[in-house]
Structures are given as C-alpha cells and as structure tokens.
Amino acid sequence: MKRRPRRAPRSPLDPRYRTPGTPRTPDLSRRRALRLFGSGGAALAGGPLLSACGVGVGGLGEGHANGASEVTGAFDWRKAEGAEISFLQTPHPYQAAFQPLLEEFTELTGITVNTDQVAEADYYTRLNTELASGSGNYDVFMTGAYFLWTYGPPGWMEDLGPWIGNDSATSDEYDFDDVFEGLRTSTAWDFEVGSPLGTGGQWAIPWGFETNVICYNKAEFDRRGVRPAETFDELFELAVDLTDRSEGTYGLAFRGSRSWATIHPGFMTQFTREGCADYSTDGGTLSATMNSDAAVGFTRKWIDLAREAGPTSWTTYDYPDCTADLGSGAALMVFDADSATYPQNIPGNSASAGDLAWHPGPAGPDGNLDTSLWAWCLAMNSASRNKLAAWLFIQWATGKEAQAEAVRTGEMGFANPTRESVFEEAFKPTLDAFPGYQETFERVIDSTRIHFTPQTQFFETTENWAVALQDIYAGQDAEERLDELAEQTTELVNRD
Amino acid sequence: MTRTDTPQRPPAGEGSVRRISARRRAFRPYLLSIPAVLLIAGILYPFGLGVYYTFLNYSAMVPEPVLVGLANYAVVLSDPVFWESVRVTLTYAVTTTVVETVLGAGIALLLFRASLVGRLLERLLILPLMIAPVIAGVIWGLMYNPQFGVLNHMFGLGSTFDWLSEDRALWSVVLVDVWIFTPFVAVLVLAGIRSLPREPFEASAVDGAGALYMFRRLMLPMMWPYILVAVIFRFMDSLKIFDHVYVLTAGGPGGATRTLQIGAYQNSMTNLNFSLGSTYMFLLWIIVFITARYLVGVLGKAQRRAAGTED
Question: Which residues of B touch A154 (CB under 8 A)?
Fold first, then answer.
C-alpha cells in the first residue's frame, strides 16, 4: 500500500513546524526528542534508585584480621596518643550524656574523637551502607544487640573478646563481668543456627539498656482506686476499664507499626511469659512456632487488647507515640522500654511528669517474669584503621568511671546503666522520684535477656511477624495468618 | 584577450592559523559534550551496576556473591507480595495523577482570568510545593492522629476514626500527594493556557461561538499538550513514590501502602538483600520506562492534533 505523503506543517503549534528559511534539522525532530526525553527520563528516574539498592562493591570479599594480638607491653591509656577516631552515633539520652565527656577521654588518652550523628530513622540505613562498603570510615559505632546477628557473619565487626582478654590492651580495672550477665550473653554468638546466645565472639559491649515493663499513671490509678495488673487477663480487663474513647483516653499504649521493632518490646515480653517461643530447633534447622496453639491464643488476645484498649491508630504506633500519649495523659499505661518512659517523669518533660510509676507487668501463668531487653552497644568496625584507639574509646565509654559520671550528669538521665556497680552506686540514688522503678528493675533483671532465637534473617522475619499482627488487627483469622507466617518464616530462616 | 586569474595565495602564516582554528572548530563539539558525557556516565554506571546486582545473590549474608542468573526475577515475580506492591503502586499512581490533573486543570482555569485574588492565590498555591514530602508526611501524620489530630477534631470524628487503618490508609496517603502536587499541575497548565494564541478565540467569538463551545473545541484541544506534560511528570513520579508514604505508614498496615519503592527499600536496607532490592527497582524501572514511552507518544499525538495536522 502506498503511503500518503505527509502534509507540510503550517501551524507553529505543530512539533514538525519549521520557520521558513531556517535549515532543516535532519534527525532530531521534537517528537523524537520527546521520545528520547521519555526514555531518558525513565532512565534518570530509575538509575539512581536502582543503584541506591546496592552499596558498592568495596566490602565484597574483604577480610580483616583481629588487631588485639598486635598490642603488647604494659597497659597504658596513652598508647594510641595522637590518633583520631570517627564515631557514628544516633541522638539518644545515652549519646547526649556522653557527648560532654568526650573531652575528658581526649585528655586521658590523647585520642581525638570525631562524632557524626544520624537520626534514628535513617541511622541503620547509613550504618548498613558504611559497613557493607568496607571503607572503614567509622571506627566505632552504636548498634543494637539484634544487629550483631546480621553484621557479624559478613565480618563487618571486630570480635572484642580478644581485646578484653589482652592485658596489654585492657585495664585491670575494666571488669567486664560487672556488666549484667543477660547483657553479656546477648551480645555474644557463634552465628551457628541453633546455637544459643553467649557462645562465640563478643561482638559489642553493652552501653545502655532497657527492660520492657509497664509504666502507668499512678496519680490516675490512685484517683480511681485501681492497682497494676498481675496477670495478662487482669491487664486486659484493667486496660478496657480505663479506656474512654469519648474522652480521648485509652488504657494501654504499645507498638503496632510495620516494623520488626513492634515485636521485641511488650509483645515479645508477654509472648515469652505466656510460655510461647518463636522457634524450635532440630539440630541445625529452625522451625517457626509462632503458630503454636498457645501462640495463636495469646496473639488473638493481644490484638483484641489493641482493638479495645490500644491507640486508635495502633498500626502506626512506635515508642515515641506511646510515650507521648503517656506523657500527655491520653494513655494510662505503656508496655514498653523503661528507659523510654523514664524521661516522661522528669519535671518539665511532660504533663504527667511526677505522676508516673513502674510495675513489672503481668507475670506468666507459672509466675515467671521473663523480660525482653534492648541494648545500645558500642562496636568496632573490622575495617577500622585505628583499632587500638577505637578499643580504648569503647573501653573507656563502657567503663565504670565514665558510665557513673554519665549517670550523674546526663540531662535526660541514663536509664539504665549496663554495669551492676554503676546501677547500685550511681543510678539508684537518682530514683527517689520514680516510684516502683528500682523494685521493678530488681524483680525482672535476672530474667531479662534476648528471648528471640538468634538467626541471621532476624529483621526480615520479625518485620513479617509485625505485618501478620497488622493483618490480624485488620480482620484476618489469627490461626490462618500465623500458619502462613510460620511456613514463610521457616523457609526464610533455613534459606542458604 | 583572455584573462587568467591566478589564485591568490594567503600571506605566509595565515594558512596554518586557519588550519588551527579549523581543527579547534572540529574539536569544539567534543569539548562541549564532555559535561553531558560525564553526566550520562554518572547515571549509566550506577544504573548498570544496579542491573548487574540483579543477577547476583548479593546480600549482607553473602559478602562474596556469585551469578545466579534469573533466580532473583523468579523469586520476585512468583511472590504474591510483589504483585500486591504492583497493584498498590499502580492504584496510587493512577489515582493521584487523575485527581491532581482534574483538580490542577480546574484550578488553572479558575485562575486564568487575571485578578487581584487570582494573583494572590497563585502565590499561595505553590506553598505545598515548597515543603519537602518527608516534612509533609510528618505534618499530615500529626493531623491524622486520632488522639490529638486536627482532622478528627474538625470533622467531629472523635478519637475512634483511624485515617491510616487498612482500608483507608492508601486513600489517606493519596490525599497527601494530592495536597502536595496539585499546585504543580495547576501552575504548569496555567502557564500553558496563558501561552495560547488569542486569534482563534477572537475569530470564534466573531463567528458567534458560545463559551462552552470555545472551551470544548478550542481551548481544551490546545491545552491537552500541557495537561499531558503534567500527566507524564506526575505519573512517573507517583510510580516511584516513597517519602511521605514511608513516613506515614512504612508500607502498612499489612501491605496496604507497600509501594514498589518501599518494597525495594525494605529488601535492600532492612533485610540487607541488595540483589532482591535491585530486582524490585529494575522491574519498577521497566514499568516507568514503558509508561513514559507510551505517554510521550500520546503527547506527540496531542500536539499534532492541537496544531491541526492530525485528526
């Protein structure tokens, strides 16, 4: 078929229009240019995003030898005098308490500490990128205990066990055993599936930590003549009784956002107390058990608690939302970290300051007070080029003297110190205005540890768990959804 | 008599100067294109690297990755969660683009006639565009809060209405997008309307055409190219949405607002599975590429129609 010759464009609005007398541009018509723009635009749109998913190949396959054995001779704080180290941190009461003390460290050791702060929302993205790149830009970094299960296997972290054991690198006064046992074991693992925590390398030193217990508005409880609940059923009833949606108040705040962090505080604490476990271990294989009969029953009740006595927008709630509601008086109880609720009782920090008190929360059917912990730790980048200086800094910051001073001078407090001696001598005297805090701590500390089974897919599987809770909250059947979750999780954790 | 012209020789030295300047002229295009080449290389290198990752098993747990062929594509494409993300992303992109286009074009038509109020509104209109989407997410998160948020208070919804519940979350994040980007469409279309030639309208008025007829048969066809440019920008941007959605819901509740970008982020940055994250992003890139090409084709057609060169 013969093609009809194209009519010469006569309108200036036609993309093919050419002003008379101007030379014809042979190839790049506007239409073609627009097509290129479309393709290029899409490439522009996708390119940086795509590359953002990878983190560069700098860290691939690089191994870093442990540096502890290179340190010999008598211990001396000034052994790395003149060195400079970089410390990646996120804003936190622990960090705020230590920031003014860094000059003292420099005076003691002659080591300069350069700090970078990244907001917690972006902190792990930054840290993951830094560590995966293998650049060694940061010698020391803050990290949570669960992150060791991910950062350890690729060799991104220095095993601090050999450093603690080397008398040339570690002061006689350091006394690592003074750190609460649950914290020491929670930061050590051999990365073998099925191995318990406390085995293998010491990948980080606990710096500050929190237990997950109930904080309640004591003034309001006293006015109503009620007491904190001792069992989970009692907690349910109490929380429902305290809820008055017409007044904008509700019984119990706890996390429900789409994040792994929803699982570890209140949920995991009570899940464990009720006799449930996340996995069963058979040799080197894990089987997810969050769909056991006990787990399904508990989960169903937990979600009902969220519906009937939790925050209306529960699926977006993180700890700042929970503690803010407690502070404003909207929530009458919070089941979350004691260190997160502690600042709400400091005068001037919230409307409920001075009215709050603490309680261990419901005991399990057998009376157990198993409690989940979160610890902020200091760890060393295995790619650090200043390992001795980095270790001296970690040793100083997690030592008795500096931690006691941080407890005494920290503007937002230092709840909780990781050393028994510091808790006894420096922290206890600050607790007079915090009713029940010390008693609660003392009742739960012996059973406070990480109650998750350690495994390298922790964040993915635990976030999936939070998604399942949200789906059940939205109306899906608990048993079916947890069965689906357990099947998916078992496959993930045993993936090569 | 025959006159023989002998070619005039250039003075000594002039030829070499001309040769140098000719060489310089020949070299100039390459020199001028260096920034563009560097820019393209800066885009293509990470893009190529990202695509390469999709064929590896690169994650934090596998620091020495190996080629796995199309295994990542098989994993992603057989995962119902991915297809749910595709559905959420397309629903989000289509809804925001349609609503923003209709509202933006409507606002542009209202502001077309110059007046003091119009000029004032034009300036106020661009305020949401000046706010970073992350900040907008934080602001709207506070407004959506059932306990103390202004929206529940304003509409008398009490403390039990949850804007971000599973069945409402997607529409609530769409609303934030509409709030931020409708002004962008309005400003773009308004600039287009103001650049339209007056003659066709004057001629139609002389011929006795009514306002509705002129709008339908003259203004709308001539506005189409500008509206389509806005559609292209908004649709491509909406397909890649991340910031305020992540701030408001992190992709939840469940998978209600988990767009492809959020899926890629969670795979790469939370789960540290860089290859799966890259696969998500590459598949998103393909979707953006195909839709962009299609929309650019539609735009060209609309331009030719507006020019009266195609029926």
Answer: 60-61, 63
Domain map of chain B by residue range?
A: 82-306
How much is the pTM? 0.83
Question: Which CATH topology does B82-306 take?
Answer: MetI-like fold (1.10.3720)
Q: Does B88 touch chain A (CB under 8 A)?
A: no
> Do residue B144 and residue A313 have CB atoms under 8 angstroms apart?
yes
For the A82-210+375-443 domain, the top CATH level (class) is: alpha beta
DSSP-derived 3-state class of residue B54: coil
Bridge partners of A141, per DSSP, are: A88, A379
CATH class of the domain defined by A211-373+451-493 = alpha beta
Let me know: does A97 contact A409? Beta carbons within 8 Å. yes
User: Touching check for B165 and chain A: CB below 8 Å?
Assistant: yes
Residue ranges per structural domain of chain A? 82-210+375-443, 211-373+451-493
Contact B252/A at CB under 8 A: yes
Q: Which of B309, B310, B311 to mutate to test the interface with A (most CBs of A within 10 A)?
A: B309
Residue B253, token pair as written in the block: 């509740």
Q: Which two tokens stand for residue A160?
A: 């601090």
Whether residue B266 and residue A463 make contact (CB cut-off 8 A), yes or no, is: yes
Dist. CA A251–CA A232, nearest whole Å: 14
Question: What ipTM describes this predicted complex?
Answer: 0.78
pLDDT in tens, chain A (496 residues): 444 444 444 443 343 434 344 434 334 344 444 444 444 444 344 444 454 444 444 344 356 889 999 999 999 999 999 999 999 999 988 999 999 999 999 999 999 999 999 988 789 888 988 888 888 999 999 999 999 998 888 899 999 999 999 999 999 999 999 999 999 999 999 998 888 999 999 999 999 999 999 999 999 999 999 999 999 999 999 999 999 998 889 999 999 999 999 999 999 999 999 999 999 998 778 999 999 999 999 999 999 999 999 999 999 999 999 999 999 999 999 999 998 999 899 999 999 999 999 999 999 999 999 999 999 999 999 999 999 999 999 999 999 999 999 999 987 788 899 999 999 999 999 899 999 999 999 999 999 999 999 998 999 999 999 999 999 999 999 999 999 999 999 999 987 6
Q: What whole-number distance in Å separates Cα of residue B210 and Cα of residue A340?
A: 68
Closest listed residue to residue B254, CA positions, set B79, B76, B77, B85 = B85
